[in-house]
Amino acid sequence: MWNWPRQIKDSITQKTTGLMRMQFWRDAVEGIYCDNPPHQPIATELWRAVKRHNLTKMWFMKIIDEREKNLDDRAYRNIQELEKYAENTQTALLYLTLETLGVRDVHADHAASHIGKAQGIVTCLRATPYHCTRQKVFLPMDICILHGVSQEDFIRGKQEKNVRDVIYDIASQAHIHLEHARSFSKKVPVKAYPAFFCTVALDDYLCNVRKVDFNIFHPSLQRKSTLLPLHLYIRSWKKTY
């Protein structure tokens, strides 16, 4: 349900249109918390969820504000900027998910913070081949500069070692965040684990990109993994994330 802020950017051709849509949803959230949601299906369901689970308004606003900033089609200046974007979108969504599960725990929040950052980084990597077909590159510029790689190198689909080194560095940061998240696992309530099962898909992608030596354009990375449901079941059965 909360995918619509991300979809706005993909469905517009002018920034002004995106700003208008973001403002609509900002006003909608304000209305929801005043018990006056707009007559719109998603807004109605959000209102019901807010009433049922006492969801925190701040997390919705962070998602909208950050998505609005992201309407500017430019690369992240550094990995920290990408992590901040992920923190205010993916992590905020995880916080809301925890609230729907009835979990309000500092250790779960710490784990969610790192998982959200990892998810944001992996999403950026996964989307790179698609963005390159549209002549756009959003990978952190500081890491590209460090390895002497230009945006044009990615747009042309180059696979030289320095290009793969950029992907290695970015993917490694996602892996570090997942390891940090798991360091809290003994303190995180089991009730929170369903919110963190997205790590199954993150692990799968990071494992696959490593197998192809960090060639982000390898065709195998664009195929769906048929084993994901099995891995998800195993994580659920073992009560791990």
Radius of gyration: 19 Å
> Treating each run of at least 4 consecutive H or I residues as one helix, how many helices?
11
Pairing-aware structural class of the strands and helices? Answer: mainly alpha
Q: Care to count the β-strands?
A: 0
**What's the pLDDT, averaged over the residues?**
93
Distance between the termini: 23 Å
Beta percentage is under 5%
Q: Give the overall shape, derived from the CA principal axes.
A: globular
How much helix, percentage-wise, in residues?
Answer: 55-70%
Largest sheet: none
Low-confidence stretches: none
Instruction: Give, in order, the helices and strands.
Output: HHHHHHHHHHH
Quick synopsis:
The protein is mostly helical and 241 residues long. The protein is built from 11 helices and no strands.
List the helices and strands and how they pair.
Layout lengths: L3 H8 L3 H18 L8 H13 L3 H13 L9 H22 L5 H28 L7 H6 L4 H5 L5 H22 L16 H13 L16 H11 L3
Helix pairs in contact: 2-3, 2-4, 4-5, 5-6, 6-9, 6-10, 9-10
Structure write-up:
This protein has helices at residues 4-11, 15-32, 41-53, 57-69, 79-100, 106-133, 141-146, 151-155, 161-182, 199-211, 228-238. The protein is an all-alpha fold. The longest helix is centred in the middle third of the chain and has 28 residues, at 106-133. The protein is globular.
